Amino acid sequence: MPSPLEQATADAFTWKVRVYWEDTDAGGIVFYANYLKFFERARTEWLRHLGIGQQQLRDDVGGMFIVSATQVNYHRPARLDDLLLVTARVREAGRASLTIEQSAWKLPAEGEEPGAAVCLCEGSIRIGWVQADSMRPGRIPAQILSALSGESLDT
Amino acid sequence: MPSPLEQATADAFTWKVRVYWEDTDAGGIVFYANYLKFFERARTEWLRHLGIGQQQLRDDVGGMFIVSATQVNYHRPARLDDLLLVTARVREAGRASLTIEQSAWKLPAEGEEPGAAVCLCEGSIRIGWVQADSMRPGRIPAQILSALSGESLDT
Amino acid sequence: MPSPLEQATADAFTWKVRVYWEDTDAGGIVFYANYLKFFERARTEWLRHLGIGQQQLRDDVGGMFIVSATQVNYHRPARLDDLLLVTARVREAGRASLTIEQSAWKLPAEGEEPGAAVCLCEGSIRIGWVQADSMRPGRIPAQILSALSGESLDT
Amino acid sequence: MPSPLEQATADAFTWKVRVYWEDTDAGGIVFYANYLKFFERARTEWLRHLGIGQQQLRDDVGGMFIVSATQVNYHRPARLDDLLLVTARVREAGRASLTIEQSAWKLPAEGEEPGAAVCLCEGSIRIGWVQADSMRPGRIPAQILSALSGESLDT
D31, D32, D79, D133: best mutation site toward chain B, by most B Cβ within 10 Å? Predict the structure, then answer.
């Protein structure tokens, strides 16, 4: 029977993130807004893995992604030095927006039980496409939509 | 008839936030995760306005707020030098968690129409209370709940 | 005899900054890199006080400031909820670069001795001027140089 | 004859950093304060490479590093999607403080000349050691000093 982590990463792109001082706050834990940064790193690396560079796209077609909605539930905190696994997978894909399902897991430290991964938070990010100069919405380039949909997503 | 901004600020605490370089990204706009920082500044100033200091509380009772869920819809981007008004108001208050409804508005620049405030984003933040050392959930101190509920909230 | 704070603020622009959760790290103190943000807020507000908007300048003349060197000595840490006073004053002004002397002070909390302000850190920031599209260096607009030099700087 | 990058990395620890949206500002480049984060990631990974975990150290001996001075010269900007190489090497080591020499380089993109690495910025970071609860200075644990000094530093 698949573990929760195995279920979360099935058909998902995954990216490892290390927790540094910059990510933490005086509560001794990762500042909650920073998980949105971790989620975005995973989306960016996913696009890169598919051969899509965002700076390149902007130079070429003048457009960029913009986040239109975020929703995150926080279950457990991460701390300095923790190694996280961040997942990303398409939940819904339309011509003008994408909804990406994402989660962050704390990976077991060396010597800990491999199955001991803990889900820290999970949520969904809706992104649209805009012209960079005018910020007017447009259609997501077909190249990106087909890459995200057709991909087997195993890294 | 009240304007959208008047409706949003009725019975709400409000706090002004200026957009600096640190808040923006290469898209030329405020990085979306940073609105969570702006929302938190407003919540913190609201507590301060009610006589509640979070560092003091932690020193005194060993507890602190922790964010358990965030949900934000982004409508329009803010840019460098914009002056924002951030609102905060209790939507639900329980013994162990509070849900705060928040929004950020771009205020008209000098010489612009006063009614021209634009809603940039809006959402809700659910916060719980934990013991700082163990991160175990606990009841929100009665002092805080009554202050947040009994307050007329006009600044 | 003037106090250290009085000496630091003589002929300087000053700007108050409150420490929020976002500014702190797991050491329980303000993350040192964030003082550079506080310093920049003060420089930006100084320009604004002189009638200079950076977004406006960029739209009008296509140029922007860029930081070319920073040097900061850290003496004492700030904590959540502390109220800081940040100073800024021109040390050297040339046609292509400006060196700004800055410091951050912890202001006494309510009920504390007014003279108890503590210098948290101090340093200097050298800034140049570039064309925003090419990043090529250029002369700082005369309007800015004369405003910064001719100003009596008392707020 | 060694290239500038080869000279910079000789006897230095190196760590790769990718530029994400979160690192950039409305100038279209990496916000200068964020290089201090990149430098710290390299120092942290260096310690980890030497078997030293900072969270573990704090749990075990109650102490932590604190930055007491930073000095950075910025030569060229980095942009979204750039891949950087960050270096770290001991310049001076005393019982109570360490000065670390650091630099960030833009690595050539695929298809570019390998020798085309460009130095973006360089500087030095002085760090001391404090008791985490009192923030009082103390001696850097001998374990860390000998590890940093005795190490050949090739990764």
Answer: D31
Give the integer Cα–Cα distance in Å for D41 and D23: 14
Residues in chain C: 155
Q: Is C82 a catalytic residue?
A: no
D109 contacts chain A (CB < 8 A) = no
- Indicate the pTM of the whole model: 0.95
Structure tokens at B38: 């702006």
Specify the residue for token string 């900007």: D77
Distances (CA, A) of C28 to B56, B57, D103: 13, 15, 28
Single-letter code of the amino acid located at A115: G
Q: Is B86 helix (H, G, I), strand (E, B) or coil?
A: strand
Q: Rounded CA gap, D93 and A2, in Å? A: 50
pLDDT at D137 over 90: yes
Q: Which of B11, B23, B25, B154 is catalytic?
A: B25
Residues of B in contact with A36 (CB under 8 A): 32-33, 36
Choose the mutation target among D18, D22, D30, D112 for the interface with A, i.e. most A CBs under 10 Å.
D22
Reported ipTM: the value is: 0.93
Tokens standing for residue A15 = 């990216």
The pLDDT-based confidence of C151 (bands split at 50, 70, 90) is low
